[in-house]
C-alpha cells in the first residue's frame, strides 16, 4: 500500500509508482496497517527495487460472484484439490514452466512441502526402529531384481554397457545377509516402460528390509507407518485422492487402523468366481 503523503520518497514516488511492475522484487521499509477496505497492508516510507521481473506475470482474472482476494480456503494434505482457483491453469504452461506454476499457484507449493513432510516422516519412523539408511548403486551390470525393461547406458572408460537400476532389492538383501539386520533406502528407480497418471519412467520409492521378521511383522509395521503418517499430516485418517485426475471426482481412502487382512489366494478365487478379475 504505497501513499505519497506518508512516504519519504517525495519526487521519486511517481517514478517508482509508474516503474514497479507485477512480479518485481522490492525492499520496503515502513509500518504495518490496514487499508480503507480493512486489508492488512504495509505502508512504505522508502522503497528500492531489488530485482526486476523481465516478463509480466499473469494475474488472476475476476470471476463473477466471487471474491478473488479471499485466500482463507488453504489446501491441506488429504483434502480435495482446487485447480479451478489457480491463477495459472493452462496445463502445458504449468508443466513446461514449473517455476511459474510455483510462483502463481500457492497450492502447488503446499504439495511440494507435503512431499517433504512425507519423506521426513518415513525417515524418522524407520530411524526410531533402528533401521539404517543406505545408498546402493544406481548403475548395474545386470538389470536384476524385477521384471521390467531397463534404461541402458554405456561407461566409456570401462567400455561396458550398464543398466539404470529398476529396483534396489538385491543390494539391500546383500546388506542384510552381511549383518546389517535393518536397512532402508529412499531412492530413484528407472523403468523404460509406459507413462500414465500413476507411472513415470523415473520415480522414487522406499524399500526396507529386516532380518528375523515375517510378513505379519511387515504388515503391522506398514500399517503403523501409513496410518500414523496420514494422521500427522492431515489431522485424521480419511483422505480424498484424485485417482483418475483432477477433472474427475476424488475417491475417499480410510487409513484408520487396524487394516483389513485378507488371504491372497482366497480373495483371488472369490473375485474370479464373481467375475471381478479383468
UniProtKB/TrEMBL annotation:
Question: Alphabetically, which GO biological process terms does the record hold?
Answer: lysyl-tRNA aminoacylation
What residues does the Aminoacyl-transfer RNA synthetases class-II family profile domain cover? 112-255
List the keywords (alphabetical): Aminoacyl-tRNA synthetase, ATP-binding, Ligase, Nucleotide-binding
InterPro entries given in the database record: Aa-tRNA-synt_II, aa-tRNA-synth_II, aa-tRNA-synth_II/BPL/LPL, Lys-tRNA-ligase_II_N, Lys-tRNA-synth_II_C, NA-bd_OB-fold
Specify the protein name: Lysyl-tRNA synthetase
The organism's superkingdom is given as Eukaryota
Say if the entry is tagged with keyword Oxidoreductase.
Answer: no
The residues that cross the membrane are none
* SUPFAM superfamilies named among the record's database cross-references: Class II aaRS and biotin synthetases, Nucleic acid-binding proteins
Per the record, GO CC terms? cytosol
Single GO MF descriptor: tRNA binding
